[in-house]
């Protein structure tokens, strides 16, 4: 099995990676460490936090399975702590076929005013804001039908796993990853006598598409950890992606256990 690693940039994380490699090599297993997507790893180990895992997923794509080892605060995507490396290596070597869970992604199509189209995707969320501190204005359509004209700080389109990230911070619902859906949530919407929005998060099933018709000449689009200023965007269409990101589970830790550990237990 070919294994690649993606690390948070700090000395402790690099020490954890080296310890993991030493322990795995000591078992004389056929596992081989590789670097770079061109070597087509079977598994990618993300060592760091949730941001590191998102970086790994965008670097290596949907082909490999992912395992998270957190080296800071408890990561939502991570199964393992550095003090559990011996147990992880033992299970990695002995358990030839781990349980594979698949997380839906958000598939996005960005259409420019000149007709150019850019296809993007996110494991957590797409975030849309105005490029300046002024109000974002976007017409929201669901399956071609107009819902509202949004005015406010921004909009989030999140996946089920991303529902526990920025989406949760704006009081969106937490959605189990087995539910193939996306969620549209508002960031500080303007609601007064002149302007009205639904002012609630919307959970949309797999066969639905939300399209955001952009009125601002310049906007900021965030896709997981990446963000950029875009000019002359006409629309952004989002739906549940055709592909899913795979995670290899070598121990049982349910989604709701992760929610509890991340937000309640500490």
Automatic annotation (TrEMBL):
GO cellular component, one term: cytoplasm
Extent of the signal sequence: none
Entry's Gene Ontology molecular function annotations: ATP binding; metal ion binding; NAD binding; NAD+ kinase activity
The UniProt record lists the keyword NADP: yes
Principal cellular location given in the protein's record: cytoplasm
Cofactor(s) required, per the database record: a divalent metal cation
A Pfam family assignment: NAD_kinase_C
Catalytic activity annotation: NAD(+) + ATP = ADP + NADP(+) + H(+)
The EC number(s) this enzyme carries: 2.7.1.23
Keyword Zinc-finger annotated: no
InterPro entries per record: ATP-NAD_kinase_N (IPR017438), ATP-NAD_kinase_PpnK-typ_C (IPR017437), NAD/diacylglycerol_kinase_sf (IPR016064), NADK (IPR002504)
Residues the record marks as active site: 50
Biological process according to GO: NAD+ metabolic process; NADP+ biosynthetic process
Keywords assigned by UniProt, alphabetized: ATP-binding, Cytoplasm, Kinase, NAD, NADP, Nucleotide-binding, Transferase
First-level EC class: transferase
Binding site for NAD(+): 50-51, 124-125, 151, 153, 188
Function, in words: Involved in the regulation of the intracellular balance of NAD and NADP, and is a key enzyme in the biosynthesis of NADP. Catalyzes specifically the phosphorylation on 2'-hydroxyl of the adenosine moiety of NAD to yield NADP.
Entry similarity comment: Belongs to the NAD kinase family.
Listed name of the protein: NAD kinase
